[in-house]
Amino acid sequence: LQLVESGGGLVQDGGSLRLSCAASGFALVYYSIAWFRQAPGKERERVSCISQSDDVTHYADSVMGRFTISRDNYENTAYLQMNSLRPGDTAVYYCAAEYFGVCAKAADTPYDYWGQGTQVTVSS
Q: What pLDDT is attached to residue 105?
């Protein structure tokens, strides 16, 4: 039972990346999905979340209008499309899944599964 992120890398200021979060051993359709990030010396923060029922999405103010969260339950994969990237977006990005989650809390405590993280580096 695991989540595996991919799609990170090095991109220039203003560029785009799409992160993927693939689940194995369980069905993402029963889970909310959140993306967190952690930069060196900073606390982990939730940047986006989509509820299990897909009726709630949340974005941190710092990424609103630039990032888009989505999921494909047939592919058992969630995505984070990141546009207009800035050096301040540089961090390790993690996906997390909460059983029947509603994205009510930005804290990282409710989540049942976590990925291993993927590095995103935005150069100026």
A: 78
